[in-house]
Amino acid sequence: MIEKSNKIKERSFDFALSIIKLYSELKKYSEIVLLKQLLRSGTSIGANVHEASAASSKRDFLNKMAIASKEARETEYWLKLISESNLISFDFKPVKNRSFVYLKENEDSSSLRSSE
Description:
Elements: H1 2-26, H2 33-52, H3 58-85, H4 93-114
């Protein structure tokens, strides 16, 4: 369980870095508010997973992981909205797929922890 949590922590951090790089690249072409929303939600996933690793209780852990899961869903939404609006010409599919993976991992980790 701890090993899986560490993997999620590392992967969510890497995802946040990829969102920051994506934001930096895309803002060269267009400064739109949607990109800032993507940046906020995409980096919040890792922050909440990181906080969950130091949770003071099982309930606190589950709460932080639930927030991370919600942020992953929001990130997926912003990626889809920006992609399908055609405001920016960019292939978002790889990033959207990674967002879905983190969402699934967070849900799996939360369900494992709640059954303990």
